[in-house]
Structure formats: C-alpha cells, structure tokens
Design a protein that fits this description.
This protein is mainly α. It is 48% helix and 7% strand. The protein has helices spanning 12-26, 59-73, 76-84, 86-94, 104-119, 122-136, 171-181, 184-200, 237-254, 257-273, 296-313, 331-344, 373-387; strands spanning 38-39, 139-140, 145-146, 162-164, 211-214, 221-225, 363-365, 368-372. The strands form three sheets. It has a three-stranded antiparallel sheet with strand order 1-8-7.
Length: 394
C-alpha cells in the first residue's frame, strides 16, 4: 500500500468552519419539500426533490450536516432547522410506508439517530425505530437480502428482487435499533444481508459488484446487474467505498472478524486504484477511451471508512469503537484518509469558500459530474473525524 501524505498547509478546522458557514447559508433553501441532491452548476436549488418521493434518499445528508454543525458550534439555529423537519420524517414512515425503499437507512441514521445521539430527543428515537422496522420489512426470507428499490406490495417490477452494494450503509440503522431495543431480529436481518453481500456482491479480488438479482419469491440467484457503475463486471468507486465503510461499521456493532477482514481487503483494493492525486476515477474498470471522470464523493466516503478502520485499530482489540470519534490521523489508514481529505480541500475539487451551494465539485452523478450533497456530508464527517470532534451517527 503506497502511503500518501496530507499536503502542507491543510487545515481541517479552517475547512470545517467554511463548511458550517455554507450549512447556515443553505438552511433557508432546503427542507422536506425542497430536498437537495445534485448541484447543477454549483446550485442544489435548481434540482430539488421532496422527502415524500419513493426514490428520495438525499435530504438526510443535509440534515446530518446541520446536526454536525450544531454539535461542533452549538448554534441553536442549526438544531431548530432539524427539529422543524421532524413531522415530515415521521409521516414518511408512518403514512407513506409502502412508498419507501432501502435508503431509509441513510435517511434516518443521519436524521433521527443523529438527533437522538446528539441531544437525547425521545421523539427522534421513536421515529428512528419506526424507520428501522420498515427497513426490516424489506428483507427477503428466501434470498436473505434486503430488497433495494421495488414496492413490497408488488412482485412484477423489473427491479423486484434486487440487492445493491449501497445497502451496506443502510444496515447501521438496523444495528442501532437492535442495540436500542434488545430485539435480535434487527441484528439478524442486518447480518444476513451483510453475509449475502459477502457471497454475491464481493468478488474474489475484493472488488464489488453494484447489484445482484434474485427471484423475488423463491430467492433463487439470477446473476449480476449494474445500475450505477460502468457496467456488469466493472468496479464502481463509490460502491467500493460504501462496502468498505459498511463492513467496518458492521464489525463495530457485531465484532465479527470476517467483516473487519473484508473491510480491510476492500480498502487495500481501493487504495491500489488511486492515482497520484488521491481522487478516484468514478469506476476503476473503465474501458480504453472512456473519459476518466473522477468522483469526489467516493473519495470522501472512503476517507471516512479509513478513519473508521483507524478507530478500530486504535481500540487495542476492544470490540467496537466509541461514538465520539477520537483523532485518527496516525497509522496507515489515518494517514491515507488525511491525504485524501487534503486533496479534496484544494482546487478544483473544493467549493467551500465560494458562493455556490455545494461544498465539493466533481462527484459522479449518472453519466456526468456535479456537486452532490452526499459528497458534501462525508467530507464534513471526515474533517470532524480527523479532528476528533465527530459524534458518530452510523
């Protein structure tokens, strides 16, 4: 593994202050009916979604940023913005449960779990548990995986019976619900999905498939699919980062050595693909002649995953890591993460000091590049982790 060093002059605290200013500037633009996702020419406001849409998965990245800002700086306005979204987060899982998909994990780990862990808000705990229950209902008993995108009251959709690598970062909501309630069902669903991911989505060389299809009723495997990477057989960079982080977090909750070992192997694969800049190409197996577009969001997610691994390494064999992350810039994983965050903090990738709504440029979004709210979130989490100031929401 080639060791990278953070650039001289990289100041995580100064970068974080710029991100927080941007969060406060954006608060008046975003809410449950105006959810940020992809930034068009630096502006999320040009393409806003709504929390109630079935395919909505991105609002919580901004919610999580606001909670991080509150935890770090104590500004009551950040918390008040979050609290104003509570009724909408409740309605989504209470009144529109069939119009949800597996990204309930993203939506509620970074909103309700984050709020509960940060403030002890009991309503947030209740809403988070409702969401975890709805997520668990997507579990296929025969296939032993969580269905990604289809409606659970139908079996005739083309996307029915699909599992995707992104879901590794939805599992923390189930692990949290298990710890909160003591009900092993949540853990059993999460572990079963992680084990099926190991079997069908992780290749022998520790690259990952984006998706795998099963027969919705019987659970019989039907082969690899692709919806986000370049194609079947390729190695989508962001999916690799999701897997690395997801298996590391699964280890923190369960202590299962196979999850930690796989997280490390995927980390090794990811780092070996990085160019000198430290910013990954959006798919590690692009064919000759394909534009080598980079993905800053994959870089930010991977940096957080590496800092999670650094936390685990620093726990001296204790199971799991604390919810308040300590400084983790030492060790092979921490140094790599610091270098990647430093690279993201420089032109042309960083827009934190600009008047644009996004923090990072050049995330892979469909067939092109733009700012992406998930990249902004993980960049912020990475800075906080690096400084030892992060309350962990996963």
């Amino acid at each position: 593994m080639k060791e990278r060093k953070a650039a001289d002059g990289f100041n995580p605290e100064a970068m974080l202050e710029q991100v927080i200013l941007k969060v406060r500037s954006n608060r008046k633009r975003f809410d449950a009916l105006h959810a940020p996702g992809v930034a068009v020419e630096g502006s999320y406001s040009r393409r806003l979604g709504t929390l109630y849409s079935m395919d909505q998965w991105t609002l919580s990245f901004f919610t999580g940023m606001a909670i991080h800002a509150y935890n770090y700086a104590g500004n009551s306005g950040d918390l008040e913005w979050v609290l104003r979204q509570q009724d909408d987060y409740r309605k989504k899982v209470a009144d529109y449960a069939l119009d949800t998909m597996h990204d309930l994990g993203f939506l509620y780990s970074l909103s309700q779990v984050a709020l509960y862990r940060s403030t002890g808000n009991r309503e947030a705990r209740e809403i988070g548990l409702l969401a975890a229950t709805e997520l668990a209902k997507r579990f296929s008993v025969n296939g032993k995986y969580i269905d990604a995108w289809s409606r659970m009251d139908r079996t005739d959709e083309e996307i029915a019976g699909l599992m995707i690598i992104d879901c590794m970062m939805n599992l923390p909501l189930l692990f949290w619900a298990w710890q909160e309630t003591g009900h092993c069902f949540y853990r059993e669903v999460a572990e079963a999905h992680a084990d099926t991911t190991l079997r069908f989505l992780v290749r022998e060389d520790h690259s990952v498939r984006h998706a795998f299809k099963f027969h919705r009723i019987t659970g019989i495997p039907d082969g690899e699919r692709n919806h986000c990477g370049f194609g079947v057989g390729s190695a989508w960079a962001r999916g690799t980062a999701w897997a690395m982080y997801g298996f590391a977090v699964a280890y923190r909750y369960t202590g299962k050595a196979v999850y930690l070992e796989e997280a490390k192997q995927i980390a090794e694969f990811f780092l070996l693909q990085l160019p000198e800049s430290g910013i990954p190409v959006w798919d590690f197996r692009l064919p000759p002649g394909a534009p080598p577009l980079v993905d800053t969001s994959a870089c930010a997610i991977a940096a957080c995953a590496l800092l999670e691994l650094s936390e685990i390494e620093g726990a001296d064999g204790e199971e799991g890591s604390v919810l308040k992350a300590g400084g983790t810039a030492d060790g092979q994983y921490g140094k790599q993460a610091a270098a990647m965050l430093a690279a993201l903090s420089a032109p042309p990738y960083c827009a934190a000091a600009s008047g644009e709504e996004c923090v990072l440029h050049l995330a892979q979004c469909g067939s092109g590049q733009a700012g992406a709210i998930w990249g902004d979130y993980f960049y912020m989490e990475g800075l906080l982790r690096l400084m030892g100031k992060a309350v962990i929401f996963w």
